[in-house]
Amino acid sequence: MDLLKKIKKSDLKGRGGANFNVSKKWNLVINAEGKDKYLIINGAEGEPGVKKDEYIIKNYTKELIAGIELISNYIKAKECIIFLNHDYKKYSKKIKSYINNDNIVIAYKPESAGYIAGEETTMLNILEKKRCEPRSKPPFPCESGYKKSPTLIHNIETIYNIYLLSVDKYKENRFYTINGKVKNPGVYCLPANYTIARILEETNNLPVFKFFVQHGGQASGEIINSSQLKRQASGCASITIYSYKDTNHLDLIKRLVNFYFNSSCGKCTPCREGTYRLKQMLSSEKMNWPHFLELIDNLENSSFCALGSSLAIPVKSYLKNINSEFKLNL
Amino acid sequence: MNGFYIKINNKKILAKKDDSILELARKNKINIPSLCYHPDLPVKGNCGLCLVEIKGFKKLARACSVKAVPGLEIKTNTAKVIKSRNLNLELLYAEHANKCSTCINSIDCQLLKLVRKYKINVTDFPKRKTERKTYKFANAVEIDGSQCIDCRSCIDACQLLSGINYLQLKGRGIKQEIVPQTKRDKLSGLAAQKQGFTCIYCGQCALHCPVGAAQEQEQISDLELLLKNKVKDEILVAQIAPSVRVSIGEEFGLEPGTLVTGKLVTALKKLGFDAVIDVNFGADTTTIVEAQELIDRIQNKKPLPLLTSCCPAWVRYVEYYQPELIKYLTSSRSPQMHTAGLIKTYFAKRNNISADKIKIVSIMPCTAKKYEATRAEMRYKGKNLIDIVLTTRETAFLIAKNKIRFNSLKDSKMNNILSEHSGAGAIYGTSGGVMESAIRTALHILENKKLPKINFTECRGMEGIKEASIKIKNIKLNIAIINGLANFQKIADHINKYDYIEVMTCPGGCIGGGGQPIPTNSDIRIARMKALYSIDSKKKLRKAHENKYALKAIHYLESQKLDKKLLHTRYINRKK
Fold first, then answer.
1. What are the residues whose beta carbons fall under 8 Å from the beta carbon of B179, sequence distance 6 or more?
2. Residue A173 bridge partners (DSSP)
3. Is B117 helix (H, G, I), strand (E, B) or coil?
4. Sign of the dihedral through C-alpha B180, B183, B185, B186
5. What is the ipTM of this complex?
6. CB-CB under 8 Å, B169 with A269
7. Of A63, B329, B354, B358, which residue is 20 to 30 A from A235 by alpha carbon distance?
8. Does A32 touch chain B (CB under 8 A)?
């Protein structure tokens, strides 16, 4: 069967966090006007607590490169760029040993670029040596991306899955990064429809102490309590366990806000100014929570890019699921 | 593709594919605020004020970035929109150090207008940029980092309108800052290909700054000092540029293009000026001198094309960036300098005033004119001819500050030997005006008789590059007009195919100058331009050399052997 037909039949979703339908993306790129087409493989993996792309790069290098070549041939890509987290330079020799085509190159995310560099239009700006910040969408990269040409951008895990589909070995699994206060941290490949509870059980990581969970990344992931584990892990499918007792709850909020403040590229007001004011509020003597939440809502509603908006997910879910459960006085 | 309807606040609005929602709303009198959006520049989406709700979407959208598609339903005034927009406005205001009471831009300040309009609580957040540095560019323009709201329009204006690329954004997050380029900065990629290393003082950054962070270096306090210390026999003279009379009314709520010469004269007299002189007069003398040079260069096979030099930002560009072009620049001084030279000599003599007792204040649409007035090459008897140069904005601020009710002023006439002018002098303020004026005169002289043709409409309009071949009997002149300096690069490598090129740094020419009222856009510039052509068409005198007073003044300077000193100048290769 034709590769695109296989992808369509499998209903494969992107594994970069946004869950976009892969076959739809392919059609957009294939049908877009433009002589040159590009494939960019996003291995920026800037979300703290997520290590699954690294795991694939390390353990399935051959499959990854084979996937890239397949896609490159299918969309007739002029160039394929593997965009990697700077920490993954150590795998470059191994990756290169599998590359047989001149049109596949590796580029590294600058160390200073941070979280935002994984956002696809920011990544394009970095590759084009422009300022490290997101572009307006539209135009979407599928129509006008790298060098203003139609560009297919996939996460490392998505590419790996496309490879598996091509050899009829795809089993609707996904890679879960489990960390935090657990016995068996690591990256696990398990069915995509498993609940968080089942994943923790099967990996023998279900805590015996009072705990709560952040899933989908330690920056942008939702925070839930131990009675809410009957759901699937979101985003990049990481699962982080926090001990209720050993966690300084205000520090958790501070860590989140600081991370976003330090990551803000400076382009838009709600993120640049908002995260700065949030940080200030947290260090003031008397915390004004309603005002704090107004800024969080504003970030969610009016941030230029999806990364800025995502601070609201952990903060609001923490306050709803954990704080209201335990009536903490932050 | 045919038009279709979209809905904004339940109102059906006819749209075309890819129309900007912000523009569509504004055209339909639905107000959507913005600070970073500017019709002269690409969409940025930074400020977060033009928020709207799109049916079917949870997150708010930016109207500047949303394009019309069939079926689109937009709301601009929901509780969610208002809450976010007001909060973003509050956050922006907290970036902007409060200097409103002395700020020239307070008349035009879009931030102040919005904060008042939406009744923003401005005390919630302490100001965060009060320690930021101010960068001063000669005596012309400055960028005060403590007032910047990070909209970045100045960078785009510098790069895309003037083609200089002198301003850059340094740092990230809250540390980002607009800074001037220094040669030492290491750049990569596109930026390295062409990076400005000096400011040309055009002031397009100031004109496109919504909050007055980029601004002219004010000289109002200098003028107030001059007025305060004025002694009895001192004569304070104001000279007003061609384009100010059709723009300054906007600062008092009048429609763009309203001609207010008479009111401006009255206002200046009320402020304490003893005489008001018309730079249109100097425009006529400039035309006569420049047309003669054009003829001389054509007839004697001297270097062509002749390049205009009345735009000081352009002159500075040539001296620093392309000094190989210096030999093409006309040696004629600009109308500002011609008029000032005549005031200190001809006017002084005719009125029996000692030149030392005359103080000259220029009222200009331009920030670079401040710099031109202090150029060493422009000095006369070792001194600057002009004491102070005020922009249109500064002049309006001064009038408002002195509680002069501009709109109800009666008209006054200038009534002196340096106020008669031709229509050609009036159109100096618009792109193509210098060219048209010079052609009217040059062709007349070359044909050695009265030329029936007056209007050279090929010179007119708002295109970035205007080219024409003007044929009259045996003469063929290939001309080009560069409207906005960034456009010069497009002809820079083949300028020798032209005989005469006019370059104005600012889009629209002086009517779009860096010292003109804010806001600006193409409709406003066109209205000002039309007003200038209407002065011209109503004049009996249409050609500069028909202005007998101008000829007389030039003859006077020639008879005193002052023509070389006061009508001409020289240029210096300043590229290092």
1. B135, B167, B168, B169, B170
2. A191
3. helix
4. positive
5. 0.93
6. no
7. A63
8. no
Which domains are seen in chain A, by residue range?
3-166 (3.40.50.11540), 173-243 (3.10.20.600), 249-326 (1.20.1440.230)
Q: How far is B514 from chain A (nearest CA, A)?
A: 26
Secondary element (H or E) of residue B236: strand B235-240
Contacts of B128 in chain A (CB under 8 A): 276
- Residues composing chain B: 576
Q: What pTM value is reported for the model? A: 0.94
Q: Between the CA atoms of B42, B45, B50 and B55, what dihedral angle is there, to the nearest 10 degrees?
A: 110
Q: How far is B367 from chain A (nearest CA, A)?
A: 29
Q: Do B172 and A265 touch (CB under 8 A)?
A: yes
What residue spans define the domains of chain B? 4-89, 94-216, 220-303+330-451+514-563
Contacts 24+ apart (CB under 8 A), A273-280: A273/B88, A273/B91, A273/B92, A273/B94, A273/B95, A273/B174, A274/A298, A274/A299, A274/A303, A274/A308, A274/B91, A275/A299, A275/A308, A275/A311, A276/B128, A276/B173, A276/B174, A277/B91, A277/B94, A277/B125
pLDDT in tens, chain B (576 residues): 579 999 999 999 999 988 999 999 999 999 999 999 999 999 999 999 999 999 999 999 999 999 999 999 999 999 999 999 999 999 999 999 989 999 999 989 999 999 999 999 888 899 999 999 999 999 999 999 999 999 999 999 999 999 999 999 999 999 999 999 876 555 444 444 456 689 999 999 999 999 999 999 999 999 999 999 999 899 999 999 999 999 999 999 999 999 999 999 999 999 999 999 999 999 999 999 999 999 999 999 999 999 999 999 999 999 999 999 999 999 999 999 999 999 999 999 999 999 999 999 999 999 999 999 999 999 999 999 999 999 999 999 999 999 999 999 999 999 899 999 999 999 999 999 999 999 999 988 887 766 678 899 999 999 999 999 998 777 889 999 999 999 999 999 999 999 999 999 999 999 999 999 999 999 999 999 999 999 999 999 999 999 999 999 999 999 999 999 999 999 999 986
- DSSP reduced 3-state for A144: coil
How many residues are recorded in chain A?
330
**In chain A, whose CA is at the least distance from the CA of B66?**
A138
Quickly tell me which residue has 């020419």 as its tokens.
B509
Residue B364 bridge partners (DSSP): B391
Q: Which residues pair with A214 in a beta bridge?
A: A223, A240
**Which 8-state DSSP code applies to residue A84?**
E
Residue-wise over A292-329: b if at least 16 C-beta within 10 A, else e? bebbbbbbbbbbbbebbbbbbbbbbbbbebbbeeeeee
**Average pLDDT per 10 consecutive residues for chain A, totaling 330 residues:** 94 91 96 95 96 97 97 97 97 96 95 91 96 92 96 97 96 96 98 97 97 97 97 95 94 96 96 97 90 96 95 96 74
Question: In the numeric block, which tokens belong to residue B261?
Answer: 């010469």
Query: Residue B344 has what DSSP assignment?
Result: I
Q: What is the CA radius of gyration of chain A?
A: 20
Phi, psi of B468 (to 5 degrees): -160, 160
| Residues contacting B69, CB < 8 A, separation 6+ | B6, B17
Measured between beta carbons, the chain B residues lying within 8 angstroms of A288 are: none
CATH T-level assignment (fold) for domain B94-216: Alpha-Beta Plaits (3.30.70)
Q: How far is CA B214 from CA A285, A320, B105, B514, in A?
A: 37, 45, 10, 10
CB A277 within 8 A of CB A270: no
Tell me which residues of chain A, numbers 294 to 313, contact chain B at a CB-CB cutoff of 8 Å: 294-295, 297-298, 300-302, 304, 309
The fold adopted by the segment(s) B4-89 is Ubiquitin-like (UB roll) (3.10.20)
Q: Contact, B422 vs B285, CB < 8 A?
A: no
Please tell us whether the domain made up of B220-303+330-451+514-563 is placed in CATH 3.40.50.1780: yes
